[in-house]
UniProtKB/TrEMBL annotation:
<protein>
    <recommendedName>
        <fullName>HpcH/HpaI aldolase/citrate lyase domain-containing protein</fullName>
    </recommendedName>
</protein>
<dbReference type="GO" id="GO:0003824">
    <property type="term" value="F:catalytic activity"/>
</dbReference>
<feature type="signal peptide">
    <location>
        <begin position="1"/>
        <end position="39"/>
    </location>
</feature>
<feature type="domain" description="HpcH/HpaI aldolase/citrate lyase">
    <location>
        <begin position="38"/>
        <end position="132"/>
    </location>
</feature>
<dbReference type="InterPro" id="IPR005000">
    <property type="entry name" value="Aldolase/citrate-lyase_domain"/>
</dbReference>
<dbReference type="Pfam" id="PF03328">
    <property type="entry name" value="HpcH_HpaI"/>
</dbReference>
<keyword id="KW-0479">Metal-binding</keyword>
<keyword id="KW-0460">Magnesium</keyword>
<dbReference type="InterPro" id="IPR015813">
    <property type="entry name" value="Pyrv/PenolPyrv_kinase-like_dom"/>
</dbReference>
<dbReference type="GO" id="GO:0000287">
    <property type="term" value="F:magnesium ion binding"/>
</dbReference>
<dbReference type="InterPro" id="IPR040442">
    <property type="entry name" value="Pyrv_kinase-like_dom_sf"/>
</dbReference>
<dbReference type="GO" id="GO:0006107">
    <property type="term" value="P:oxaloacetate metabolic process"/>
</dbReference>
<keyword id="KW-0732">Signal</keyword>
Length: 194
């Protein structure tokens, strides 16, 4: 690897498309993860994501990154938006999972939950935990919820019916469903089935 990236191992359930709530302590496989931990490491995150064939996930070494860039880490702020978004995109392009770093204030379940929801929306598939209380929160926030699964099922069915009718897009509940929306829904159903 290169300067600015730490390589380690995490206990994760690896699947072909997702690492759901990877920080959960369940019977699991030891898989390699990489963590860009500096500004130099982030500038090469795409290369890092493709460097090791067995690499299952990448995560940001947030505190190390902050120290290397001189940014401050105010509580609940958005100072990590750019590195998180870049990391999530690089991971998706390489076909591996993106994991969010840990929240050091392990007593603040509300902050942890808000962060988990936010990074899940960015495409992250799990969050590292440093305290046992964070494990259940991680599993809850990263697993597809029943309402999401039902909506994804409806999207897939509507799109496939439209496709059979020769349409490239259909309407569902007043919203357009085209191929990217269909693929996102199908991926959620795949994660839910694991």
């Amino acid at each position: 690897m290169h300067l600015g990236t730490r390589i380690g191992a995490a206990l994760c359930r690896r699947s072909t498309r997702a690492l759901i709530g990877c920080a959960a302590v369940l019977p699991a496989l030891a898989v390699a993860t990489a963590a860009p931990a500096s500004a130099a490491g982030l500038t090469r995150v795409e290369e890092t994501c493709r460097a090791v064939p067995r690499l299952a996930a990448v995560s940001l070494g947030a505190e190390d990154y902050a120290a290397s860039t001189g940014i401050e880490r105010p509580r609940g702020a958005t100072e990590l938006e750019y590195p998180r978004a870049r990391l999530a995109a690089a991971a998706a392009a390489a076909g591996i999972g993106a994991m969010d770093g840990p929240e050091s204030d392990y007593r603040d379940a509300e902050l942890f939950t808000a962060q988990a929801r936010h990074v899940r929306a960015l495409g992250f598939r799990g969050k590292y935990c440093i305290h046992p209380d964070q494990v259940a929160l991680t599993k809850r926030e990263f697993a597809p919820q029943p309402a999401e699964v039902e909506q994804a099922r409806r999207v897939v069915e509507a799109y496939q019916a439209g496709e059979r009718a020769g349409l490239g897009a259909v309407g569902l509940d007043g919203a357009m469903v085209d191929r990217p929306v269909y693929l996102r829904a199908a991926a959620l159903l795949e994660r839910a089935a694991e």
